[in-house]
């Protein structure tokens, strides 16, 4: 039994705070399928305002938020979506846009900074003159922050450029904004400005904001009314969902201001890891709360053995490949946890036990 646990597997691991639990217990609720749950309506109204969109819809997960958004935009058979080869929709959502929606993915390489080259996106758009053989491009998807590139932020200017390209070709733009609040805080740019060019976005409440469950899709009123129907089709229509939305409202109010500290702790951890023999990472590229690093060949331990060693000291991380590991900071990780984590890494890889690391 370990004396202390520092859970760095993801920002999805946070436990609801006392304030969230109290809000859940006292939530004003009604049947959200038959009409409007008042707490859900409050959350959706707030999220539409924050994102600068006409309407919003609470959904059980970011995966369902992305799936519904893609399927609403690509509601004609033979549709194709352009998305990053390292995007969450393409890698971690069970290929749902294809298996459930029949939508064909066309990937463009994600750059290290999370972007896709705009000229490569344009080159991937199908020529309508080839419609007898090609799928029809209907949607472009971006991801901000781009998680698998290390939580990298897409600028408003870049997003606008992709939006202009989409409009030029009569396409729609969806943004997987699972961590859009992290991007907003890191860039010092309001969420609504980062999403300005998007026709829709899926925003996670259950990541850095620390809500126990849920995401919100935002877009036009017409888009959201079609999304609401598709949510029901997919089994995502919920009854007294205000119990979850009440916690999300607390998260929105209390945890957005904490994201800046999450980013500072991530930077502190990245710079500390960068000093440890056997690890390789680009600490300068850490912009938000996600850190990827490699265990170099010849290190004292392999990545797998390092993860096991860390777990014995209560440090939980995510092994991403035979040589790479991911750690994610969230509001329930303290500076002391960061120092303790660094001391455990040092001890595992160099044998040096630091006293101040507890
Ligand atoms: C970038 C990104 N998009 C979407 C999701 C899906 O969210 P969920 O796990 O709630 O389905 C995640 C998961 O954490 C994610 O990191
Ligand atoms: C692993 C992935 O699905 C999840 N979105 C995370 O970042 O933890």
Automatic annotation (TrEMBL):
UniProt GO molecular function: L-allo-threonine aldolase activity
Keyword annotations: Lyase, Pyridoxal phosphate
Cofactor: pyridoxal 5'-phosphate
SUPFAM superfamilies, per database record: PLP-dependent transferases
Domain of life: Eukaryota
Domain Aromatic amino acid beta-eliminating lyase/threonine aldolase: 7-293
Enzyme kind, highest EC tier: lyase
GO biological process, one term: glycine biosynthetic process
Catalytic activity: L-threonine = acetaldehyde + glycine; L-allo-threonine = acetaldehyde + glycine
InterPro entries in UniProt: ArAA_b-elim_lyase/Thr_aldolase, Low_specificity_L-TA-like, PyrdxlP-dep_Trfase, PyrdxlP-dep_Trfase_major, PyrdxlP-dep_Trfase_small
Listed Pfam families: Beta_elim_lyase
UniProt pathway annotation: Amino-acid degradation; L-threonine degradation via aldolase pathway; acetaldehyde and glycine from L-threonine: step 1/1
N6-(pyridoxal phosphate)lysine: residues bearing it: 207
Family: Belongs to the threonine aldolase family.
Protein name per its UniProtKB record: low-specificity L-threonine aldolase
Species this chain originates from: Salix brachista
């Amino acid at each position: 039994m370990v004396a202390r646990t520092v859970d760095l597997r993801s920002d999805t691991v946070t436990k609801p705070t006392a304030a969230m639990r109290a809000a859940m217990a006292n939530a004003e609720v009604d049947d959200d399928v038959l009409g409007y749950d008042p707490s859900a309506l409050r959350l959706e109204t707030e999220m539409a305002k924050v994102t600068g969109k006409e309407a919003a819809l609470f959904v059980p997960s970011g995966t369902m938020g992305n799936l519904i958004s893609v399927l609403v935009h690509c509601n004609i058979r033979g549709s194709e979506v352009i998305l990053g080869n390292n995007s969450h929709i393409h890698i971690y959502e069970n290929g749902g846009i294809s298996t459930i929606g029949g939508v064909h993915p066309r990937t463009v390489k994600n750059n290290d900074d999370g972007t896709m080259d705009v000229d490569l996106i344009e080159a991937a758009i199908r020529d309508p003159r080839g419609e007898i053989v090609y799928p029809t491009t209907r949607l472009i998807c971006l991801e901000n922050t781009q998680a698998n590139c290390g939580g990298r932020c897409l600028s408003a200017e870049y997003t606008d450029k992709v939006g202009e390209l989409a409009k030029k070709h009569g396409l729609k733009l969806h943004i997987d904004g699972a961590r859009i609040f992290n991007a907003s805080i890191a860039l010092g740019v309001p969420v609504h400005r980062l999403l300005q060019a998007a026709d829709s976005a899926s925003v996670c409440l259950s990541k850095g904001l620390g809500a126990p469950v849920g995401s919100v899709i935002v877009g036009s009123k017409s888009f959201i009314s079609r999304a609401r129907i598709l949510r029901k089709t997919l089994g995502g229509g919920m009854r007294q969902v205000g119990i979850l939305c009440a916690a999300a409202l607390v998260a929105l109010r209390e945890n957005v201001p904490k994201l800046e500290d999450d980013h500072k702790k991530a930077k502190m951890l990245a710079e500390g890891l960068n000093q440890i023999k056997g690890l390789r990472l680009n600490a300068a590229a850490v912009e938000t709360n996600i850190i990827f690093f490699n265990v170099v060949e010849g290190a004292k331990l392999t990545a797998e053995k390092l993860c096991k060693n860390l777990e014995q000291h209560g440090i939980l991380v995510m092994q991403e490949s035979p040589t790479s590991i991911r750690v994610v900071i969230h509001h329930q990780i303290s500076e002391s946890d960061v120092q303790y984590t660094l001391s455990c890494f040092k001890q595992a890889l160099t044998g040096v036990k630091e006293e101040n690391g507890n």
